[in-house]
C-alpha cells in the first residue's frame, strides 16, 4: 500500500479511499498507486529544477557547472526525460480519477505546463550565463591581444607583419564569437522543437486513451445488447414450452371431466 503524504489533495484522496474501499477496493488502490507515482515523478522533477536554479544563482566558485555545449544538451535531455515521466504519470492519474469519479482541485495538465515553463526558463538562464562567461573570456582575450605594450611596439616599430598578426587574431576571436552565437541559436531552435515534440507525444497518448475508452464503451453496450437478446430468447423458449404443455394437457382435462363429455 503506498504511503499517503500530508497535503490537502492527498488527505482528501485518503478520505475518499476509506469511504469507497469497501465498494471497490481494486479501483481505489489503482487511484492511490497513480497518485503516488505522480507524486514521485513531480518530486524528482522539482528537486532537479531546484538544484539547477540554486547552482545557476550561486557564485562561480560554488557552482559545479562547466557551461559547455555537451553539458547543456545533457541538462536538456534530463529535463525532457523528467517532463515526459511526469506527463505519463499525470495522464494515468487523471484517467484513474475520471473512472472513479474523483474531483481534482487542479488539473494535472495545468501543473505540467508550469513545470515545462519553469524548465525552459532555467535552460534559458543557463544559456544566458554561458554566453556571459564566454563574452567575458572573449574580452580578456581581446585585452590580452591589444595591450598597451603591443600598441607602443606597433607605433614605434611600425612592423607590418606584427600588425597583420594582431588583426588576424582579432578576426579569429570575432569568428569564434559569431560561431558561438550561431550555436546558441541552433540550441534554442532545438529546444523549441523538443517542446513541440513533447506536446505532440502528450496529445497522441491522450488520443490513444480516448480511443481505448470509446472501444470499452462500445464493448459494454454490445454486452448489454447480447444479454437482452439472450433474455428474449430464453423468454420465447419458456413461452413456447408453456404453450405446448397447455395444448397437451387441455384434451386430457376434457376427457377426465364427465360433465364436459356429456355436454359434448
Would you give an account of this structure?
Keywords: Coiled coil, Membrane, Transmembrane, Transmembrane helix. One of its GO terms (cellular component) is SNARE complex. One of its GO terms (molecular function) is SNAP receptor activity. The chain crosses the membrane at residues 228-246. InterPro entries: Sec20. It is a single chain. With 264 residues, the chain is mainly alpha-helical. The chain has a domain at 24-145. It is built from seven helices and no strands. The protein has helices spanning 8-20, 25-56, 69-99, 108-145, 148-157, 160-256, 258-263. The longest helix is centred in the last third of the chain and has 97 residues, at 160-256. The protein starts with 7 loop residues before the first helix and ends with a helix. Mean pLDDT is 78; it is low at 1-19 and 260-264.
Indicate the topology.
Layout (H helix, E strand, L loop, with lengths): L7 H13 L4 H32 L12 H31 L8 H38 L2 H10 L2 H97 L1 H6 L1
Helix pairs in contact: 1-2, 2-3, 2-4, 3-4, 3-6, 4-6
GO molecular function: SNAP receptor activity
Keywords: Coiled coil, Membrane, Transmembrane, Transmembrane helix
Q: Can you tag this structure with a few keywords?
A:
single chain; 264 residues; mainly alpha; disordered N terminus; disordered C terminus; transmembrane helix; SNAP receptor activity; transmembrane; coiled coil
In short:
The chain has 264 residues and is mainly alpha-helical. The protein contains seven helices and no strands. The chain has helices at residues 8-20, 25-56, 69-99, 108-145, 148-157, 160-256, 258-263.
